[in-house]
Each structure stands twice: as C-alpha cells, then as structure tokens.
Amino acid sequence: MKIKIIGSGCPSCRMLYQMVVNLKNEGKIEADVEYSKDINKLIELGVMRIPALLIDGKVVSVGLPMNDEELLNTIKNE
Questions:
Q1: Predicted local confidence at residue 64, as pLDDT
Q2: What is the DSSP string of 35-70?
Q3: Which residue of 9, 30, 37, 70 is 20 to 30 Å from 63, comparing CA positions?
Q4: pLDDT tens readout for residues 32-51
Q5: Domain limits at 47?
C-alpha cells in the first residue's frame, strides 16, 4: 500500500503525515508513506483543501485531519 499526504507544509498537513508514520511505526499498518508539497498535483486531482490523503493514488480524505482511530479505519477500509 502507498499512502501519500499532499499539503502546503502547514501544521495540519505535517500532523496528518506524522499520524500516518506513527501508525506504521506502531505496526498497525504496512505502507510506504510519502509527504508532498506538490500543489500542482492537488489541482490535477481536483482537490481544493489540504491536507489530502491518498491511498494507492486514490483521494480518500481532504481537509482537517481525523483522530487516530478514524484514520486507521479509513486506511484499513481502502
């Protein structure tokens, strides 16, 4: 699984990235995790809010980050 967070580098974007990394480090998910500040990619995807959470190239969440449980459920359901 490939998880990508796209954002501007704002605190919410960095927090979502760190939450995903923590889930990986805790062994709750197995994934390659990447953070990108490529705003052009957001435009290409039609995303107008940040952070954007992509799993295997599919946008699964935009905007305010979720709590740990919601994030884990979102990732596992993809």
A1: 76
A2: EE--HHHHHHHT--SS-EEEETTEEEEESSPPPHHH
A3: 30
A4: 999 999 989 999 999 989 99
A5: 2-76
What is d(CA 48, CA 56) in angstroms, rounded to the nearest whole number? 20
The DSSP call for residue 67 is P
Domain count, the chain: 1
Amino acid letter for position 34: E
Adjacency order of strands within the sheet including 32-36? 32-36, 2-6, 52-55, 58-62
- The SS3 call for residue 48 is coil
CA distance 65 to 47: 15
Sequence-separated (6 or more) residues with CB below 8 Å from residue 61: 52, 53, 74
